[in-house]
Structures are given as structure tokens and as C-alpha cells.
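[INFO] parsing input record for Long-chain fatty acid--CoA ligase
[DEBUG] input buffer:
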Amino acid sequence: MVVFNEFSTVPSLLRNVVENIHKPDETFLIDKKKSDWEEISFKQTLENADAVAAFFLERGIVKGDRMGLMIENSPEYVYYDQGIQQIGAINVSIYPTLSEHEVEYIINDSGIKAILIGNTFLLKKVLKIADNCRQLRYIIPAFEEYTKVAIPAGLDTEIISFDEVLATKNRISKTQLNEINILREALRPSDLSSLIYTSGTTGIPKGAMLSHGNFVENVKVCLQQIPVIDETETFLSFLPLSHVFERTATYHVCCAQGCKIAFAQSLELLAKNMGEVRPTVMNCVPRLLEKIHDKAIKSGTAGGGLKAKIFLWALETGQEYRKEKEAGKHPGIIMSAKKAIAEKLVFSKIKEKTGGRLKFMISGGAALPKNVGEFFGNLGIKILEGFGLTETSPVMAVTEFHRQVYGTVGRVIPGIEIGIQHVENKEMISIQTHETFNEDFDCAEGEIIVRGHCVMKGYFNKPAETAEAIDKNDWFHTGDIGRFYKGNLQITDRLKNMIVNAYGKNVYPTPVENVYLKSLKIDQLFLIGDKREYLTAIIVPNKENMQEEFKLAEAFFQKPELFIEDQEIIDWIGKDIKKHSAELAKFERIKNFKVKRNPFSMEEGEITPTLKAKRKVIEQKYAESINQMYAESVKAD
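[DEBUG] output buffer:
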């Protein structure tokens, strides 16, 4: 049974667990540095956090100072964060994939005093810009090989290993511990906890100011909405802690409930780590679920024959069973028997690849295609969808565990209001709260706006941008388009993404792109058509499936040409474009497309760290090819 106690700041979450839920020597963090998984207790975590706090207090760091982190998910992230937060310093986590220019901007804009660094590549990146960052006093590598990195001559910034920081625990005094306790107890919910810089699809990054109260209230209401999370859970963490979704929905939730956190080694080793850790809960993004879906379908139907027939029969059986349960009915003996057979022959094998213990996964960061959510539901793997932004700390709505409406992001969380505002005349279409929930309620779509405890304090050093985002009535304007459907919030697309064709028809790209992404031949799709007579697209094929179909060597993907001109490959993709176009209105159908050789990437500045396409960047970068598409004859109808 969960022991739930009051807490009001980020450092008080973990202290509450040790006082009321778990013994200090019980496992909190699980990490794999080399060949074995290491278990780290709550006591060890708090001792290391106190060491970090004492180290920085000795060097004059005070409440309100900004402290940087550019490191992969790891115990070191937790020690550093817990240490600085309890003395009132502010966490500024930087995406490791950002360019030198962007990292320099964030360090200077926030005034970072010290930065924790996770690997050689990131250290070299920071060393190149350190002399341009006048407030940066300490660079703290959290890896052994840092001594092999060449240090620029005349570097003013001091380099101190994180091992040296943690060694402070061997000489920490009672006086220092008392000072840390006083500072921690003096924190208030209104105090700033973190600056999280929005990656943004346009413009320069803006630092969202999130308070302790923002984070803690978000955790409380999410646990209220999903009460099945308890102190026995093991979360597998792989989404970046530099992003607000993983920070709140894994790290802070685990700190609040005393759940274990296992850190995945990398995205490439995620499948292996799932089998080793056997998590009960995971937070993920739709793209991961889409890839699992695609691989399962491909594996289950490969070669046809009896195996494929059994696989498809099992999915159909799972769907019938799911619909019966969701309708509140009790499946009969025959249906239950069929489901048990499907579970043994098909579903259990898929589940075993996740470790076999998953209670559910939470999908966030973008809309999950309805067919993907239904697929997992048919398997008996529950996917809860959530919606939020960096500026809303982040959760605004999340699926209730007992009530699933596929294609929506769930019920409004307690304590906030979500409004749907007409895009053009700004009239309010509807305002809904947790208490006004009605599973029969629908409304028209408009911009999603929100006010309440989840909304940030504003953008750091940017009063004009803050005033533009939060109006005089305290409504934060998300820039997302959506509506309420069956009482749940449903996301249509980003307001800025909207395409208006030459005939004045409005097209939201995401729902259209998701229709075409049902194809196992397509990995990414970018829709084009603003002020044009018809839609076109840049398509990134599924590399594995294309290699298998056309027997392509790796050298094919190393060619300098950005786009594939092989007519066989174009026709191969074109068949699926034509097939899925039948699901769309005529003005939503792709009439022409280019096949991109390699994926859109963060390194090329084409997508954000949360995998959203930077529309202006892509349209400008590939303008010549886009114009060429509109000059050619139509390839797909």
C-alpha cells in the first residue's frame, strides 16, 4: 500500500520516502556502467546529494544561482540535482544534442556558475565555448577519461572531477549538514526549481521558469489520476532528464512514491535493458511505440502461412476482448478461452521482449496514432497518453487507468482549467476541469489554453515573450489545436503547423502524416502545401524494410545525393501512399513526394530533441527540391 504524505518542494519528495515509505538501505537507483547492474540505496543517494550541497556551499554558491547539467540519465544526474536543489540553487539541464552555439547561448542567458558534464564529446564542446561564458566558474566531468582531453591554454574556468565533489562526504561536518537542512527547510513552493529551455521549432530557446510548486503539484495530481503507481514499481528511464516529461513523470514521481529508477544504457540497448531490468512502468514517446508496433506486425506476418494467420487471428481476438471490456461487459467463456489461447501463442511472446512485467506505459511528447494505441490495447499492454508542455511542468491531461479513449490524451488533471478558444475570433468555446468531466461531452476544436498550478512563472529574462504567452487573465496559450471528445482532451496539431492551401482549405499536418505513417515502408513523413494547390511530402523510408526489399548495402545510404531517384523505390512507396490516401479527403492527399536518403536529425537542426519537425528549417533547407516537386507531374493520386 502506498504511503502518501505531504511535501511541497522537490528535495522534500525523497526525504519523505526515507522517513515514511522505505528504509534508507533499500534500493532506489539501478545503473549499469560496465557488465553488471549496480543497486544504489536511498541512503547512498542522500549522502552523495549532501556532498554536492556541501561542496558548492564551500565555494559560495547561494540560493538562486543557476547550475548546469549536460549529462545522460544516470545516478550522477540525481546526486547533482538533489544536492543543488536542497540549497536553493536552480537546475538548468541542457540537451546533450544541442550545438555549441545553442549551449553557449543557454549558459550565458541563464548565468550558469557550474556545469556537470557526462562524456568526452560534451566536455570538448563546452571547452570550446568556456572562454565566452564569463559567469561559468566550474566544469565538472562525471567520467574517468576526462583527464585525456586536451585543455585549452589560458582557460579561466576550473575543472574539478565529480569524484572529487562526491568525496566531500568523507569530511562533511555536522555544522555543514545543519546548514543544508536549514536551507532545505527554508525552501518554499514558489521558489524557482528549474529553468528548462524550450527547444522550439522556431526562434531562439526560451528558459521556462518552473517552481518547486509547479513540479510537486504536478506529481501529486498525476498520482491522483493514476493511483495504481505504488512503491513497488521499477521504472526504466531512457527519455532525457533534460526534458520536462521524463523529469516529472519518471524522476519526480519515483522520488514521491519510492519507486526504483533503472537507467537505460542507451536507446540502442533499450530492448536488451528492458529484458534485464524487467520494468513495471516506462515513459516513452509515440515513435518508440510505432517502431515496436511495426516490428511486431512485420515479424508476425513475415512469410505468410499458418504463422501469419495465427498472428492476425490473435490480434482480432484481442480487439474483440478489449472492446468488450471497455464497454463494461464481461467477456463470456468462449471469448475468454480464445483470449487465453491468443495470449499463450502470440501476446506473451511480444510482452516477454519488454521484460514481461509491464503494468503500463505512458506516452507523451506528441500525439500517439490511434491505431498504435489500439494495437497495444489488443495485446493487453495499457498505454496511457498524456499531454503537456515545458511551460506547464508538464502534465495538463492524462489518461485514467480505468477509462481509455484511444486518440485522446485523457482527462484534465485536478486543480487546473483547460479552455478551447476559437482561433480567429478568440471566443471561448469551452472550459473544462477535472470536476466537470462528462464522458459524453464533445466540443468544436480551437486553441488549447490553460491556467492553474501547472503554469510556469514565465520565461527567464523575457518579459515580452512571457506577456505574449500568458494573457491578462492568466491563461497560458499553448499554440496547440484541440477539442474535447468524450470528455477527454484530443490534440489536433500545432497552430503554427497549420497548412492553408491555395484554395483556403485548412490542413493540420499531424493527423494526415499519421495516416501515411501506418505504412511499414515509411519511417518519417513531412507534409508540404502552404499556399500551394495540393499537398506534397518529403518521405524517409524505413531503412530496414527497404534494405530487405531491394538488397541494399550500407554504401547506398552513404551516397552524397540527398534524395533517392530510383524509380523502383519510388513506386514501392507510392503504392502505400495511394492505398492510404483513400482514408483522406481529396485536399488532404499527397500528390507528389521526394524520398529522402537519410532521416531528419537533430544534428542537422531539422527536428527538436522531442522529435518535432522544424517546419521553417526543413522548408528552407529543401526549398529547391520542394519547388521541383511542384514542377513535376503528379506521382500519386
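[INFO] The CA atoms of residues 25 and 434 lie 39 Å apart.
[INFO] shutting down worker
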